[in-house]
Amino acid sequence: MDRRLTAYLLRRVALAGIMLFGLVCLTFVIANVAPNDPAALAAGPDAGRSQIEQARRDYGLDRPLHEQFWRYVSDLAQGEFGRSIATGRSVGQDLARYFPATLELCLLAMLIGLAIGVPLGVLSALMKDRWVDHLTRIFAVSGIALPPFWFGLLLQLGFATGLGWLPTSGRLSVMTEPPDPITGLLLTDALLRGQWGVFREGLSYIVLPAIVLSFPCMASILRVNRAEMVEALRADYVMSAQAHGVNPWRIVCVHALRNAMLPTLAIIGLRWGWMMSSTVLVETVFDWPGIGLYAVSSAIAGDFKPVMGVTLIVGLNFMVANLIVDLLYGVLDPRLREG
Amino acid sequence: MHSRRHILTALALTPGTSFAFERDGARKVLVFSGNQAVPVLDPHIRYDWSTRMVQQAVYDALLKYEGSPPRIVPWLAERHEASPDGLTYTFHLVANAKFHDGSPVDAEAVRFSFERALRLNAGVAWMLKDFLRPENITAVDARTVRFTLDRPFAPFLSYVPWWYIVNPRLVMANAVDGDMGRRWMTENGAGSGPFRLRRFDGNALIHLDTVPDYWKGWPMGEPARLSGIIYRIIREAAPRRAALQRREADAITNLSPDDIGQLQRLPGIRIEDHPGATTFGIKFNTQQGPTADINLRKAIAYAFDYDSLITIHNGSAVLQTSPFPPAMAGHIDVPGIPRRDLVKAREYLARSRFPNGGITLEYVYVQGLEDARRIGLSLLDSLRALNIAVNIVGQPWTTMVSRGSRPETAPNMTSVYVTPVGTDPDTVAYQYHRDSWGLFYGMSHYENPEVWRMIEAARAEGDTARRMDIYAEIQRRIVADQPEIFGMLANRLWAMRDYVKGFSFSPVRLSGEVDLYPMWIDA
Amino acid sequence: MTRKLRLAVWLLTRSFASMLGIALVVSIVTLALIGPWIVPYPDHVAGGINLANKLQPPSAAHWFGTDEVGLDILTRVIIGARVSLLVGIGITLSAALIGVPLGILAGLVGGPLREAIMRLTDLFLSVPGLVLAIALVAALGAGIVNAMIALILVWWPGYVRLAESKALSIRSEPYIEAARVAGATTTRILWRHVLPNSISPLIVKMSMDIGQAILAVASLGFLGLGARPPTPEWGAMISIARGYLPDWWWYAIFPGAFIYAAVLGFNLLGDGLRDILDPKSNRG
Fold this sequence. Notes:
Chain A has helices spanning 3-33, 38-43, 49-58, 65-77, 91-126, 131-145, 148-162, 186-192, 196-234, 236-243, 248-286, 291-301, 304-332.
C-alpha cells in the first residue's frame, strides 16, 4: 500500500483513540459536577445511614475522585462500564442488551432515508426550480425542523390510536417470544430463523419510530443528491452523452448518480452519529427498549454511569463513522492525504 | 363519548388486536401493566412497588399481609410466639413448603435468608439491622427458627412479611467472589412462591408461570388457575390506557386522575379505587432560612389551598388529619390541623419576621412526578395571597436527598411522599426523630427533644394501650410544631377488565403493587 | 453594496421556500415582541391553577383550549414564542461569540495553539450534541438557564470550525500575503479581510442554528430537563401533554405546531440565504 496513505490512516486512527480518551474524561467530569449523593439512590428511599454508607463502600464512592477515575478507565479498558447506581446492574451488560435495538432502529431508518431521499433528490434536480423542486425543498427542511418527539406523537395518534393499524409502542407483543439471537437484531434474526410471523410483527412495531428517526437523515440525503445531480447534469460528459443520443435516464442513473455516491456515503457517515443521538427522543416516545431510552431514564433519575456509557457508545459510533468517511475519502481522493 | 366507543369498535375489528386475554395452551395469561421497571429481583437488595410485586410472586415469607385493614397471616410459619420480655421470637414452619427445585423450606433456609439480608445490608436490611444480629438467629430444628433481638423492638413482627426466604442451596451454588449470589439473583429466582420466572426482561416485561403444585394450593381452584401472569412495562400513561382499551392488557396501574374519568365511562372496565397509605407532605426546612420561623410555617399552612389537593386528584384523595395515615394503628384525627384560612394566615404572617411577605421560597419536587408539580403550582397560587413567591424546582431524587441531608442546604419546602412499610406507628413516628435528620423523610430537621423522647419510649413500650396514648400525644405535638404542610393521601387506583377476578386491596402494599397470587380470569 | 443587496432581496423573493421562511420568522418574532399585550389571559403566564376550567377543548373563549390546570393554552403558547426565541438567539449568539474568535485565532496564528483549539473542538464535535446536553443538564439540574449553558457548550465548536476554515483559506490568499508584506498588522488583516469574508457563511449558519437551538431546547423540555414550571416552554408543555393524549389532543398539538413553524421558518430562511450568499456550499 501507498506509504503516505498508510501514514494517513494511522494518524486518523490514533487521533480517534485520543478523542475517545478525551470523551471519557469529559463524561467523567460531567458526572461528577452533579451536586448529589449517588449512595442514597443506591440504598433506596427507606434506608438508614448504615445502608447508605454500605452502598457508598459497595460502589467505591468513598474513594477519592482520582482513584474513582482510574478505576473507571481501567474498567473501560477491560470493556466494563461500571455499575448503575440506581439498579446495581452492570452498565456494560445493559448496553449490550439495549444497543442492538437501537442499532436495528437506526439501520432501518437509514434505509428508509436512502430509499426516499435519493429518488426525491434526483427528481428535484431534474425539475430544478419548478414547483416540485420547491415542494421537496420544504419537505427536506421540514425533515430537520419537525420536532421528532411531536412528529412521533402525531404518528402514534394517527396510525396507532386512531386507525389502529399499528401498535403504539414497544418492540414485540407480550406473548411473542423473540427469536433466539444470532445477530441481536430482531428482524434479521427472525428472518434467519425463518419466523415470518415474528418478522411481520416486529416490522409493525418498528416502522413508526424508524420513520420518525429517518426524517432528518432523509432530508440531508435529498439535499446532497440534488446538489450533486444538478452539478453532474451540467458536466461536460453528461452533456456530450446527451448529444450522442444516450438515453437520458441512463445518464441519470449511471453517470450522475454514480458521482453522487461518495457524498451520499459521507452524509450517511456524518448523520449516523446524529441519528443515534436523536434515538434519545424517538425511543422515549415509542418506549423502544434501546440505549436512548436507557440514557434518558437514567439521566432523570440522576444515575450517571449509564449516561456516561451511552455517551461513550454514541461517541464511538460517531467517531468510527467519521473515520470510515475520512478513510474512504482518503483512499478515493488522494489530494486529502497531504492535509 | 359516542365517538370514543365508535373508535373502540373499530379497534376491535382491526387485525393485530386481540379480542380477549392472552392464552397459553388451555390456560389463560393475565397481563398487568405499570410504568415502573424491575431492575433487580433479589429480595434482599431492593424493593419498590413493581419489584416487590414480582418478589412476592416468586418468594414466600414467614408471614404475609392481607386485606384492608391489613392483617398479618401465617404463611411459611404456621404459628409463632414471642417471649414476654419481647426479646425472643420463635417461628414454627409448615411441613409441606418446598422451593421450586423441590427442596424443602426448612429452618436453615430461613436462617440463611435473614442472615443474607442483614449481611448484604441493603434493601430491607434497615428494618431490623439495629436490633438483630445474624448470629442470634438459630435453626432450633428443621421446622423451628428462633430470633433473639438485642433489645425489645415492638414493630418486629410488622416487618417480617417483607423478609423473603430464598433457597440457600441454589443461591450459594451461584455465588461468585463471595457475593452471596448477589449478581445471579439480580435476574433469577430462587423462591418457593406461587410463581416461577419464565422470562425476565426487567425493562420491558416479566413473564411468570404459575407453579401447579404450589404448596399452599390455589384459591381460585385448579381449573381456573392461570397459566401465568405477564407484568408489562409501559412507561407512558396514554399508551398504557390504550393497551387496556385494546385488551392488550387486562389490568393497569399508575393512572392519572384524568385517566380514571375517561376509563370509568367505558363498558367492560372496572376501576379499583382504594384509600391509600402514602402521605404527601410539603416539608419545611425548620432549621435554616425563613421557614425556621414557626409563624411563617403556620402562615403558609393556613394559606395553602387544601381543596386543590383533592381537585387535582379528581376527588380520589383524602386530606391528612394527622402525620399518621388513617390505616395506621394509633392514628387520631388531630383537632385544629390547619385548613385554608387566610385571616389566620395573615395573623401568623404579621407575627413572623416577614409581616409583609416579599420573599421567594423554593419548592423542590422529584422531577417527573406530575402530581407534585401540579401541587407546586397550587402552592404558588395560594401563597400569592401572602405576597410570597414560589420557585418551583424539579430535581432528581439524588440531588434532592443530598440537599436535604443538611439543614444548610435543605430547600425551604420539599414535597415528599412517604409510604409506611408496615402497620406499626413507629415506622411513621420515627421519621420525626433526631436519628432521621438528613434522610429524605427527615428533611425538615424537626427538633423537639420531648417528642424524640416519647418516640423512643413508645418503641420500647410493651403495653399496647399505653403505647397508643403516647402516639396520640406525639401526633398532637408534631401538628402543633408544623414541620410540614400535612397534605393528603391519594387513593390507589387500578383499572381492569371486568373479567379479572381475585383482586384484593391492602393499604400496606406500595403504590401500584398488587398481590398476584389470588388473581384469575373469569371468562 | 446596495446593488448586491437589492439583487439578494430579489433572489430571495423569487424563491417560494425562502418567502415562506421569512413569513414564518417575521410572524414568530412579531408574536414574541407584542405577545404580552395581545394574549387573552395575561395572568396565566405566571402560572397558578384554575382547576374548574381544566382540559377544556378549543372554543371561542380559549382558541387552543386549556391545559391540565385550567390555563389558556393560546396565551402560554404565545408567551412560549418569547421564551424559545430568546433562548434560541441567546444560545446561537453566545456560541458564535465563543467560537468565532477562537476559530479566527486558530486559523491566523497556527502552530500548537491552533492544534490545541482544534483538537478540543473535534472532541466536542465528536459527541452528538443532544446526548451530551442531556448529561450536562442532568448534572447541573433542570432549568432553562442550565439547558442554555449545556447547549452553548455543545454548540460553540461548530463556529470554531467555520471561522478557522475561513481564516485559513483567506490567509493563503495572495492579497493577504501582499498586505502582510506591506506591513499590515494581524488585527488589521482580521478586521479588514477575514471578518467580512466570514460574515455571509456566519449569517447563514446562525439563522439555521437559531432554529436548531429552539428545537434542542424544546427537546430537553420534552425530556423533562428544560424550563421549570410555570415557565411556558413549548417542549415542556408537550412533555406534560403527552399524558393527555389522545382525548385531550389539543394540548400537545398546538405547542408542537409552533415549534415546527419556528424551526421551519429559521431553516428555510437560512437555506434561502445560503443559496444567495454562499452558493458553493450547498451541501446537506
